[in-house]
């Protein structure tokens, strides 16, 4: 069941969550991303699976150590590309050392010549999360549209990445919000409590 929230409530929650994330990033630094990498085997991702990560912005937890660990387990990597406002993300193949170019919203993504891939697993950044698997993003809806599209066309595993300090008791949920399948923080992997 969804509980739509007044717009100002989500705005306030985004602001507070961004402050908590910033404080966690200062406190934990690069060690948090390294801790994510130690959990690669616990995520249960099959060798050969295409895993879409993201290039971290600002004080987001750094997924690159985890992505490299997954590549070491035989996974293929991709990064998202913002194709347009109101559209789902596209994904292009990426390996460590590949050139990147600037994208929309301050993102970095592989060059246009990189192969397009359909991910089996999507690692998602977030501002906040709850144990029911809901995430608070930046409000653009890119990941919700993308996960909905991938789920309609054969399925996907969505794994939220964040600092443990970003957990909240409950998030307001809109009808279009796509739940995560699990969450990984520097403290471990969190199983989602489906109602």
What features would you highlight for this structure?
single chain; 195 residues; alpha/beta; seven-stranded mixed sheet; two-stranded antiparallel ribbon; 21% strand
Number of helices: 4
Q: Give the overall shape.
A: globular
Q: N-to-C terminal Cα separation, in Å? A: 9 Å
Mean pLDDT equals: 93
Q: Can you list the strand order of the major beta sheet? A: 3-2-1-6-9-10-11
Q: How do the SSEs run, as a string of H and E?
A: HHEHEEEEEEEHEEE
Largest sheet, in brief, is: 7 strands, mixed
How many extended strands?
Answer: 11
- Which structural class fits the helix and strand makeup? alpha/beta
Strand content: 15-25%
Helical content (DSSP H or I, runs of 4+): 25-40%
User: Runs with pLDDT <50, length 5+?
Assistant: none
**Cα-based radius of gyration, to the nearest Å:** 16 Å
Summarize the topology.
Blueprint: H1 7-28, H2 31-37, E1 50-52, H3 64-72, E2 76-81, E3 90-93, E4 100-102, E5 108-110, E6 121-124, E7 128-129, E8 135-136, H4 142-152, E9 157-161, E10 182-185, E11 188-191
Parallel strand pairs: 1-2, 1-6, 6-9, 9-10
Antiparallel strand pairs: 2-3, 4-5, 7-8, 10-11
